[in-house]
Every structure is written in structure tokens, then in C-alpha cells.
Specification:
Length: 331
């Protein structure tokens, strides 16, 4: 809830600070990867876009074969991880595989025009860089609608997560830094949003890198690679379905919005209630308990009050409310 104190925030001061940040980004050269953008899984959610799991599986598996062939007799796990990252990840704003998914005609995208998204028309000062950089692409992966940026989080932030895990041997410790980056430059500072789904994609990326060498990281499956005599062997294929689930979808695992953005997003999400009533299954996680337990250590913020299955009262209740007080609808 936004209190009166928040409503009196000085926009002059915020405008000045944001202007300084924007100028620094453009002229000083803050790394492009630090400039976050939002994606929109609410708008046109009912559109039946094709699932791209097989296409993206092929890209990753081709990379694994290439990397393994190039390693020769080098038994160095981190060298394998780094080689995969350099092939389909990247040092720039958009990872190579993410960019391919965004640009390829083979990968169908949800229709979310820049000026007709769930963020359209909101005050620029509440959206910050989203106002200037627009809204990213949404694709379907393992039957879930996800922002294309999650591919980058999986590969790049997942690699950083994995490196921290190798040092600490603690997923909880590695998760603390992942949550910090979402509070800072990758999230709330630049967009006003703390993305729970980003944290999940980061964590699953770390699990992917671990699953290259460890059995049962994906329950019931052996490691993707095996060291055999004098070289790596790919003993099973990678599958995005082992990692992507409903918590990658920001219409189901909703962002935590700061004081400037919360009120506007709350009001905007309420306007989506008619769409929710038409097809509530599109906005509902059928069995959430296992996901909540699996990711409990990631530092996600509770945003359940903004989920449409919580935000939108049942249609029958609204109909009754329109009647005069004390008058009940006829049976």
C-alpha cells in the first residue's frame, strides 16, 4: 500500500536524478547490459502463438556439440561453461541466443506493440527507462509465455550465479547476490520493477550449468556431459522444458513495483479483469505449491495481491454489488 508520504515524493528531485542516470548511460557508457527493459505477458495473452521449445533446443544442443568438439582433451569444466557462454550468451545488452530469438522469423512472438502494452500511457517518471527503450519481445517456451530477456538471464546471469556457487558451494549465498542485482541496476533503479521471474531464470541458468557435469540436477536425468578417456561426450540433450515453468511468466509471477509505479500498475491491472473473467485459466497457476517451495530461497517478493486471480473479484460478486444495498439477485 502506498502511504501519504510516498504520494508527496518530489518529482523534481526524481526527474533530476533520472536525467543524470540517463545522460550517464548514453554519454559515459554504463554497460548496455545494465539498462533493463520490461516485457509484457498480459497484452494479447490469448493469442495462440507457436511454441519455440524445439527451435531453441536445437540451437543450444548444436552449441554443446560445437563446444565439446573444440575442447579436445581439456578436462576443465569452467572452460566448457565459458565457451557455451561466449557462443550463445554475450557481453552486451542482448545475449546472442536472445537476439536470435527476437529477430528470427522462425520464432513467433506475442503481438505487444510499443504503444499498446500494459505499460502504455503510464507516467514516464514511473516507468523510467522503459519509456525510452520500449517493451521487449514475448515468446512461448515449454508452453509458457516468457520475455525474451529471460534467455539472457538464463545464460549470462545464470553463469555468474554458477560461478558464485562454485566459490561458496551454497545456493542460498549465490541467491543473495542475484536478488541484489534485481534490487539495483537490473531492476528497480532502472525500471521501478523487481522481477521475481528474473530471479527464477537466473537460478535455472545456474542449474543448467551444474547439470552439464552433475547427475540429478534435473531430477532423474544424468549430467549432459561425461568425461570419457580423453574428452567430453554429450550423453543427453539439453531441453528448455527442464527449466522453464509458470514462474518465468510475469503475468503469473508478477513483478514487485516500487512506490512510483505500484499505484499505476494496480489501476492498469484492474482494467484487465474482464479478460480474466473470460478465461481465468490463462492467469492462474494450477499447482503452485511445488514452485513456491522450489524457489523459496531466491528472495522473491510477495506480489500475490496483484495476481488477477486475487485482484479481480468474481464476476457474480460484481453483479450483485450493482444491485441496491440489501437487495439480492433473484435465484
Amino acid at each position: 500500500m502506498i502511504g501519504a508520504r510516498c504520494s508527496r515524493i518530489s518529482l523534481t528531485g526524481l526527474t533530476r536524478r533520472f536525467a543524470v542516470f540517463l545522460v550517464a548511460t548514453v554519454t559515459v557508457g554504463i554497460p548496455a547490459a545494465a539498462v533493463a527493459y520490461e516485457t509484457d505477458q498480459f497484452s494479447n495473452r490469448e493469442s495462440p502463438i507457436a511454441d519455440s521449445t524445439e527451435l531453441l533446443n536445437d540451437r543450444v544442443n548444436a552449441t554443446l556439440q560445437k563446444v565439446v568438439a573444440a575442447q579436445g582433451g581439456r578436462h576443465d569444466e569452467m572452460a566448457v561453461v565459458n565457451a557455451i557462454y561466449h557462443e550463445i550468451g554475450g557481453h552486451h545488452w542482448v545475449d546472442k541466443l536472445e537476439r536470435w530469438a527476437m529477430q528470427s522469423d522462425q520464432v513467433e512472438k506475442l503481438d505487444t506493440p510499443r504503444y499498446d502494452s500494459v505499460f502504455s500511457g503510464l507516467p514516464w517518471y514511473s516507468l523510467r527507462v522503459t519509456t525510452f527503450f520500449g517493451v521487449g519481445k514475448t515468446i512461448r517456451l515449454n508452453k509458457q509465455l516468457i520475455g525474451s530477456d529471460k534467455i539472457g538471464h538464463f545464460l549470462s546471469q545464470g553463469r555468474k550465479y554458477y560461478r558464485r556457487y562454485r566459490k561458496s558451494l551454497s545456493e542460498a549465498t549465490a541467491a543473495e547476490h542475484s536478488a541484489f542485482t534485481e534490487r539495483a541496476i537490473f531492476g528497480r533503479v532502472t525500471t521501478g520493477s523487481y522481477s521475481n521471474a528474473d530471479l527464477v531464470a537466473n537460478y535455472e541458468g545456474h542449474r543448467f550449468y551444474r547439470s552439464l557435469f552433475e547427475d540429478d540436477i534435473v531430477p532423474g536425468k544424468p549430467a549432459i556431459l561425461r568425461w570419457q578417456e580423453d574428452g567430453w561426450v554429450v550423453q543427453r540433450e539439453f531441453d528448455w522444458a527442464d527449466h522453464v515453468n509458470e514462474y518465468w511468466d510475469e503475468a503469473l509471477n508478477i513483478n514487485h513495483f516500487d512506490a512510483l509505479l505500484y499505484k499505476h500498475m494496480h489501476e492498469r491491472l484492474v482494467t484487465l479483469c474482464p479478460k480474466y473473467w473470460e478465461n481465468p485459466d490463462l492467469y492462474t497457476i494450477a499447482d503452485e505449491a511445488p514452485l513456491r517451495e522450489k524457489y523459496a530461497h531466491l528472495g522473491m517478493r510477495d506480489t500475490s495481491e496483484l495476481r488477477l486471480d486475487s485482484l479481480c473479484p468474481v464476476q457474480e460478486a460484481l453483479t450483485a454489488e450493482k444491485l441496491s444495498p440489501g437487495v439480492q439477485a433473484s435465484p
